[in-house]
Amino acid sequence: MSDSSATPANAAAPAIPLADASATEAAGAALAAALASRPGAVVFLHGDLGAGKTTLARGFLRALGADGPVRSPTYTLIEPYTLGARTVVHMDLYRLADPQEWWTLGLDSYAPSQTLWLVEWPERAAGVLPAPSVALRLERVGDARRLTVHGDPAVAAALRSRLEVQL
Q1: In this model, does residue 59 exceed pLDDT 90?
Q2: Name one GO biological process term (predicted).
């Protein structure tokens, strides 16, 4: 396993402005489309409390067909979703006191090669998580948000082009 606090080595794409929660959910939907052909992707979601990580995850999951409640896994730590033939595991690792606690979450049945992982607060499991396919950083800018994509330039370009159409 590699250092999970690191983002992929590629430079960040220019920041994408997100005006409100609807735009943040649209970014999640665009990310789902950009990763449609990558069932084993690991997505890191960085940002302060209230930055919109769960809102983005909600848009992602809705785009893949989740129709029930999409809640923050703050207290449950993991929320698995079976969406057709695909499994998505949404994790919020904020409450981990030690990176080694990650091993107690039962994630061994959700292999990254077969499951798409959305990981909020990945720095809480630094050194034990698989390396991310893409890392997103959400920042508050007044009432709006700013999204920065690190990693695979193709994912960043696809995300940006899809958002330009949606927003």
Answers
A1: yes
A2: tRNA threonylcarbamoyladenosine modification
